[in-house]
Amino acid sequence: MAALVAAGLAVGDGGAPPAPSIPATGIYAAVFFDPGRSIGESLADQRTDFDLSFQVTVVGPTAEKVRWGGQRVRAALHAPLAVAGRTAWRPEELGGPPIQRDDDVSPPLYYLPVQYRLQSTS
Question: What CA–CA distance (Å, rounded) separates 80 from 96?
């Protein structure tokens, strides 16, 4: 989430960020994390490796603005992430469905969910 904020995006954990943080452009990113899992790194079953999947959903008032936000997310997550006390691989983009329009809200919003996987070791 820190990498996305550093890229200038308004970010919410598990949903939209609080209303005052959503910029006038109406573009924000909602990040959804799974609980992750520890992985045995050797036959001795030392559990120092970890992987985590997460989804970044970019939301905005137009499809064009959502594409712009999606590119900001990709740029922010392209470099390896810094995690204190761990070595992290570059996030792996797993893809997602195309941009969709949500007509259940007024005015309608567009959204683009993209899934990633992150691995690290101590």
Answer: 21
